[in-house]
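This section describes the prediction task in plain terms. A model, or a person checking by hand, is given the sequence of a single protein chain and must write out its three-dimensional structure as a string of tokens. No templates, partner chains or ligands are provided. The sample shown here is typical of the held-out split.
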Amino acid sequence: MKKYLNLFLGLALVFTFSSSVSAAGKQQSAQVHKLSAAPAATYPFESEPNNTRREANPILEDGIRGTISSATDEDWFSFVAPINNEERLLLLIPYGSYDYDLYVYELVGKNLDQIASSTRAGNSDESLRFDAEEGKTYYILVKSYSGYTDTDPYTLYFDLK
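The expected answer:
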């Protein structure tokens, strides 16, 4: 029952998140990837290894699922911003004793600079916004602050324009 409740709440949160994106009053083009209320199970699963920036999975859809299978497991994703825009990310964490965090980095010279993060305490979903610059590559990191599971996936939603 808790899994169904978590799925329902997750879909409601995604729908609400999507509605707030549309209500922002910005012009939307046909190229915009909108967050949708599609069931998380329809999104692709991360590909291991993706434990470093160099192994980051490219973002090809508006959502992806993954698992944090150990205390040291990190899941990296990347995308190139097609236009200057504010981007939004939403991380739905599986129900249980898991506390995952969400970070965004950009490469400046040879250094990774953190430009955004969401590190809510406990089993709280994470969300963040950041300004993306056209043509720049951004790296997204999902990692555990405490707890992990290799059986209950998280879902990471993207509103990348």
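For orientation: Residues 56 and 77 are 4 Å apart (CA to CA).
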